[in-house]
Amino acid sequence: MNKQSEKSYGISRLESKTARAAIIQKIATDFNLMPIIAEAYYKQISTYFDQHANIQLTSGQICYEAVAADEPAGKHIALARKVSCRLTLNDVNEDFQILANYELAGLRRHRILRLTREAYDQEALLSYEDLAILLTTSPATVKRDIRYLRKHDGKFIMTRGAKHDMGPGLSHKTRIIELYLKGYQFTEIEQKTNHSETSVMRYLRDFTQVATLHEQGFPAGQIRIITKLSDRIIREYLQLFSEYENNDRLFQLINPAEKRGMST
Q: Which residues, 6 or more positions from 241, have their beta carbon under 8 angstroms from its beta carbon?
């Protein structure tokens, strides 16, 4: 900018009269901070606002704060990192038909499936209490609905409680990878596990990275450092690799440019 023009028009003085400048001045005064520190605070708070309050929604959607999926069990809820999720509470394209065919209980279960899937796609997990307040019902009813979906429809519902109460059995990620290696199509895996294609693809990428590093001779400890996956997941993935070592789909994951049985 031309310095003479800037001085003539008082540009710097005008810039100090913006809402941004006013907020920075208030932060500096209220917290007894240097202006440069107050400006840094303003920029960081603006980032938080964009992440948690400036969420674009469409008809039937709400913004809901849920606990991040990677937060460990036992951590106080007030200290846990939150994710602002865009959730579809009412989808006119399918909810009315579900209501007509399966009545209120069926619609509630359908929404449980959708809400938990959408939250997990955004790297968050809903609790029974979250689902209860969203669906204006009780946590006990939500638990009963989830048991029904698991028993009668074979659905795996990813809630905060489900993730942290899995125990020593195989993780849902490993089960999904195994379904893929057994030849199931993406749509079948999505229906069986209540996971979106985005989540399935994410698990496949992680598994492929672990398998490729293992093929290259990296030990499990180094694989964990490179991939940032847990010891448990790496152990399960390596066990799966061992069990399906001659599997065509596994071969294609690790060697996407080659065809089995052909030399390069």
A: 210, 211, 214, 250
